[in-house]
Amino acid sequence: MAYYERRLPHWHPEHAAIFVTWRLHGSLPRSLRPPVELPAGKAFVAIDRELAKAATGPSWLKDERVAQCVIETLQFGQESLRLYSLHAWVLMANHLHILIEPNAALPKITKSIKTFSAKRPNEILGRTGEPFWQDESFDRWVRDQKEFGKIVQYIEFNPVAAGLTERPEDWPWSSAYGGCKLNEEGRPGGPPH
């Protein structure tokens, strides 16, 4: 089992699917962070609810060009780099969730995907050289098939829980969209709200 630590501990058993969340740099001010004494799962849900509001900080993923770059990078990581199998994903205004089965170490995956998915968006936004993603990410290895199903549902229902759509399949920046991951052009639809 691989283990490493930055601000958060990261456990990665071999052959286990992993749920990963990234957020934009500066998207969650310290004043909105949950108390440290909250258990990790509850702290994650509290942070995710705040992020879904997109009330503070950047929401660059609302820009269709930026969102498309991120989706193309996720697809590239799976199809060309073969870093993982992508099972579920959702792109929100200031964060994303993915459920993957890694074919490489998670630090390599996150570094590759964050680096590639930040370069073009920063150019589009006129922010070349500026941080795009927050350094730290949240990850959880999936314990069993039941949890795997719950995580897919959590990911795909994220826009519904945020009040952005009534049905997961109506959110164009999600693996649930229209019953398929991406169309032939690799485009899911319109930008996140």
Structural notes for this entry:
The protein has 193 residues and is α+β, with helices and mostly antiparallel strands. It has one domain (2-179): Transposase IS200-like (Alpha-Beta Plaits). The chain has helices spanning 40-53, 64-79, 106-124, 145-161, and strands at 2-5, 9-12, 18-23, 84-91, 95-102, 138-141. The strands form two sheets. It has a four-stranded antiparallel sheet with strand order 4-5-3-6, with helices on both faces. It is globular, with a radius of gyration of 16 Å. Residues 179-191 have low confidence and may be disordered.
Give a brief outline of the structure.
The chain is of the alpha+beta class and 193 residues long. It is built from four helices and six strands.
Helical run tally = 4
pLDDT < 50 runs, ≥5 residues? 179-191
The name of the CATH topology is Alpha-Beta Plaits
Question: What radius of gyration results from the CA coordinates?
Answer: 16 Å
What is the CATH H-level superfamily? Transposase IS200-like
Largest beta-sheet details: 4 strands, antiparallel
Class inferred from helices and paired strands = alpha+beta
- Whole-number mean pLDDT: 84
CATH architecture: 2-Layer Sandwich
Task: Compile the SSE list and pairings.
Blueprint: E1 2-5, E2 9-12, E3 18-23, H1 40-53, H2 64-79, E4 84-91, E5 95-102, H3 106-124, E6 138-141, H4 145-161
Antiparallel strand pairs: 1-2, 3-5, 3-6, 4-5
Helix pairs in contact: 2-3
